[in-house]
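W.,

You were right to be curious about this one. When I first looked at the sequence I had no strong expectations either way, so I just let the prediction run and decided to look at it fresh. Below is the sequence, 72 residues in total, followed by the output.
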Amino acid sequence: MTELLERVIARLKTLSSSEQDAIATMILEELEDERLWNESFARSPDLLAQLAAEAMAEHRAGKTQELDPETL
């Protein structure tokens, strides 16, 4: 276990049980989400590469526009 993780766990031990459970739930959900993304990408590397190539071709052809967060 890394030193940083040990510090985090020591700090978590000072929290209430409900706070510890809430943070543990968030961490477990994040780890599961990461696992699902990794599985998804592993199953379709060719599709992902094809989509990236199409996006770059559209960009080079001037069919894209810069994203403006203010207009979302």
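Here's what jumped out at me. The chain is about 75% helix and 0% strand. And, maybe more interesting for your project: The mean pLDDT is 93.

Coffee later to discuss?

I.
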